[in-house]
From TrEMBL:
Keyword Acyltransferase included in the entry's annotation: yes
Sorted UniProt keywords: Acyltransferase, Ribonucleoprotein, Ribosomal protein, Transferase
The protein's name in its UniProt record: Ribosomal protein S18 acetylase RimI-like enzyme
The keyword Nucleotide-binding is assigned to this record: no
Positions of region (Disordered): 1-40
Native source organism of the sequence: Rhodothalassium salexigens DSM 2132
Gene3D superfamilies, per database record: 3.40.630.30
Length: 209
């Protein structure tokens, strides 16, 4: 899938809302989570690695991403909904999958996967970055990307992290550039939506930290 992130723009009117881990829908607003600073602050953003027992959380985040930022991902809501729990469990077992905001009201996710073949095991793939609209502008995306990079750096002999992002997603591209990624090419017509709209993908890479 494309690693494109939704536009991390201005905060939503409900900055305390999260994602229900059972439905993938936005929860009711409450007290703001302690670890969700404004983008200009230096406070921490809570990021946890999801495990095989977190299938419901992972599925909910994926469904939320397909609902709220459908043009940023190659997959669709229907495709994600049809995937069995075993698919999600396999990804959680094999990849580094991280959630921001904790497990009860997660507000974002990212995954990183090492290439499995012998000649490509020096590379890892960052994918599925999503930040819920109400959590944007607070450093959540940066914290998630940093967690993915740190995970990749912990893998033996991984030298390079790759990703793709929709060329029109300027805020996401700016985030990746701040995190050290550089563009090295464009894949034309990388994605085609049901209404016939094409999207190009920008190909980006950076060395492991």
């Amino acid at each position: 899938m494309s690693a494109a992130a939704p536009t991390p723009g201005a905060d939503d009117a409900n900055p305390a809302a999260g994602i229900d881990p059972q439905t993938g829908h936005q929860t009711s607003p409450g007290a703001p989570p302690a670890a969700a600073p404004d983008a200009g602050s230096c406070g921490p953003v809570e990021v946890v690695r999801l495990g095989v027992d977190d299938v419901a959380v992972f599925r909910a985040l994926r469904l939320a991403a397909m609902t709220r930022s459908p043009d940023a991902f190659n997959s669709t809501y229907g495709e994600e909904l049809a995937k069995p729990d075993a698919w999600y469990a396999e990804r959680l077992a094999e990849d580094g999958v991280f959630a921001a905001g904790g497990r009860t009201q997660p507000q974002g996710m990212v995954g990183v996967r090492r290439y499995p073949t012998a000649k490509a095991r020096h590379k890892a793939w960052l994918y599925g970055l999503f930040v819920a609209p109400e959590a944007r502008g607070r450093g959540v995306g940066q914290a998630l990307v940093q967690a993915a990079l740190s995970h990749a750096a912990g893998e033996v002999d991984v030298e390079l992290v790759l990703l793709t992002v929709v060329t029109g997603n300027a805020p996401a591209i700016a985030l990746y550039e701040r995190m050290g990624f550089e563009a090295y090419g464009v894949e034309p017509r990388a994605m085609k939506t049901p209404d016939g709209t094409y999207y190009d993908d920008l190909l980006m890479a950076r060395p492991v930290p």
